[in-house]
Design a protein that fits this description.
This protein has helices spanning 2-5, 8-29, 31-35, 52-59, 61-94, 100-107, 109-112, 115-128, 135-159, 164-171, 176-205, 208-213, 221-230, 236-266. By secondary structure, the protein is mostly helical. The two termini are 32 Å apart.
């Protein structure tokens, strides 16, 4: 195995992979030098180290309110998406719903289709239902976009799930609810958590659908970003982007730790 990694072909392959990752991630992590820059405009290399833009972020009500609004919408979107996506996966994969394959294609359209097309359609429907410009409308629109990500994760796990475990538990006297809580749920929990993490990130980062559905009184963080750079570059946006990036990294790390803990408890 050691000689395998010393092979020039493997060295070239790993070098190419590292170069691609660096090219992909470098623009993202370049936000940190801009966020800690002491200059009054975006400049590189940084002119000095300063926390002034983080202070400006937390002292500006528009940034704080937009962050709180995005957090509220993302939390409710995650709850709705996890519930609907998990139920849809059970209905299509486990219960072998009639026309399940066709339904799954329509279910995945918000993910694979153009967001601008979906956003225009949602705006047309929500404007007739008086949901445009409301927080409820944003939660429902974000949930429609996030449900496919939950469905894919849970459905892929259920497709490899050994149903004989449930039958064995039921033969020993366990009810369907007990069988789900003690057998099925712990096994598919990592897939549900992964879908929830994706749903939260999708809602937190969604701009196109939000731009069509929200109004001036319902401003999320992506909309605040857009207004901050539309007529000029607000360096506070760099500090906000750095905070969001750190939050996403911590969220992914928390998901991995939770999955590892669930797997460890499952095999005890």
């Amino acid at each position: 195995m050691r000689n395998k990694f010393l092979n020039p072909t493997w060295i070239a392959l790993y070098g190419f992979a590292i170069a691609v990752l660096t090219f992909t991630l470098l623009p993202i992590f370049m936000i940190f030098p801009f966020a800690f820059n002491s200059a009054t405009f975006l400049s590189f290399p940084p002119q000095g180290f300063s926390l002034r833009w983080f202070t400006a972020f937390f002292s500006e009500p528009s940034w704080v309110n937009a962050t709180i609004k995005s957090l509220q919408i993302a939390v409710f979107t995650t709850i709705i998406s996890v519930t609907c996506g998990t139920l849809a996966a059970f209905a299509i994969v486990r219960k072998k719903m009639r026309y399940g394959h066709a339904i799954s294609i329509f279910l995945l359209f918000p993910m694979i289709g153009p967001h601008i097309t979906f956003a225009i359609g949602v705006f047309g429907i929500f404007s007739r239902l008086n949901l445009a410009g409301t927080t409820v409308g944003l939660i429902l629109a974000h949930s429609a976009v996030a449900v496919p990500f939950v469905y894919i994760n849970v459905a892929s796990r259920l497709s490899t799930f050994d149903a004989s475990l449930e039958r064995a538990a039921q033969s020993l006297g366990a009810s369907q609810i007990e069988c789900f809580l003690r057998i099925t749920a712990p096994i598919i929990a990592p897939a549900i958590i992964a879908g929830g993490v994706f749903a939260f990130i999708i809602s937190w980062d969604e701009f196109i659908v939000t731009y069509f559905v929200a109004d001036t009184n319902t401003q999320t963080l992506p909309l605040r970003f857009f207004s901050g750079i539309q007529y000029g570059v607000d360096v506070t946006a760099a500090a906000a982007a750095a905070l969001i990036l750190v939050a996403l990294i911590l969220g992914i790390a928390l998901y991995r730790l939770t999955s590892m803990w669930i797997n460890r408890m499952k095999w005890r």
